[in-house]
Specification:
By secondary structure, this protein is of the alpha/beta class. It contains 14 helices and 12 strands. It starts with a strand and ends with a helix.
């Protein structure tokens, strides 16, 4: 069995969660010995599409079983790009077309599975399978931590809170900024970027008014980013909507305490005070971050790590292999 892992505009995806999920798929398949190609002109038995137009999917469907990865919903499109309100009806139609013609859909959580099954005309099976996490890549490494400290001129004794995500209003960066303003003795760092023409006026204004103790790091990858996850006292992720949140998996894999917004995607797998700390507003977020700074949360950290162990790439690879076998049977 050989699969074509396909995505249009791969260069644009590099800095997004979809891009990291695409990378994880390759690593997961390698871990279980499933052969794959990225070349549509190669030979293969089925197609696993991460991002494509309905026309491209229909073309593949003439010859091959097709899996469409359900990375997106209308819910997580809202409050993202500039002019999202005007684009949303067209985006909904795009999702309707692509999900509606798939032979099978893979989506990261039971929550996103529910949204896809309830909001779109879907005739195919929908499988909930995490995007997964490379556990080895997020093990504590002092060299990577030191690279992070040097990059941002920080010391071990500094209190550090990090957030990660594209500069979407949906990601809650404006709330991250306001919480930073109330904690002047703590360094807050947001990792992520977005072209200026795509960033909403509201977010541009919030960033322009950020406090002195907050750093806008832009897009950072590799060892420095992994060092940031390990060095931080807390990962603060105030996103309003997610289909999974790879950032959360990365934080848990780094054994760093997590404060996040209490939203539906986490209801059935991340529990408040057991795996993470959940808040509803900036007042609660500030109190939770201060709680992390002043208390030992080792039991919560270990519980969180157990969650990501169940989402390691070898286990995701087995899940993908099972889905591929299923879609071949469906097509036959």
């Amino acid at each position: 069995m050989k699969v074509l892992l396909y995505s249009q505009k791969q260069g644009m995806l590099k800095k997004s969660g979809i891009g990291r999920a695409f990378y994880h798929q390759k690593k997961a398949l390698e871990s279980v010995g499933v052969e794959y190609t990225l070349d549509p002109n190669d030979t293969f038995d089925l197609v696993h599409i991460n991002m494509a137009s309905s026309g491209v999917i229909k073309k593949f469907k003439k010859k091959y079983p097709v899996i469409v990865h359900g990375h997106s919903t209308v819910q997580d499109f809202r409050r993202s790009f500039a002019f999202w309100r005007f684009i949303a009806p067209f985006f909904y139609k795009h999702l309707q077309n692509t999900y509606g013609i798939a032979d099978l859909i893979i989506t990261p959580t039971r929550y996103s599975k529910f949204l896809i099954e309830s909001m779109y005309v879907v005739k195919s099976p929908v499988v909930a399978l995490s995007n997964g996490i490379d556990l080895d890549a997020y093990q504590y490494d002092q060299v990577k931590v030191d690279q992070f400290y040097q990059r941002f001129n920080l010391k071990k004794e500094d209190k550090i809170v990090i957030g990660v995500g594209l500069l979407f209003e949906r990601k809650g960066i404006h709330d991250f900024i306001e919480v930073a303003r109330t904690m002047p003795d703590t360094t807050f760092i947001w990792f992520g970027t977005l072209p200026s023409y795509m960033t909403t006026h509201f977010i541009k204004k919030a960033i322009k008014r950020k406090p002195k103790n907050m750093i806008m790091a832009g897009y950072v990858e590799g060892d420095v980013m992994k060092g940031a996850f390990s060095a931080a006292n807390c990962v603060f992720f105030p996103s309003y909507e997610e289909t999974e949140g790879i950032v959360v998996l990365e934080a848990l894999a780094s054994k760093t305490p997590v404060v996040l917004r209490d939203i539906p995607v986490y209801y059935d797998w991340l529990f408040d005070k057991k795996h993470v700390l959940k808040g509803h507003n900036n007042y609660e977020f500030k109190n939770l971050i201060e709680l992390i700074m002043s208390n030992d949360h080792q039991e919560m950290i270990e519980n969180g790590y157990k969650i990501v162990k169940d989402r390691s790439l070898d286990k995701i690879g087995l899940g993908l292999k099972k889905a591929y076998e299923e879609v071949i049977k469906i097509k036959r």
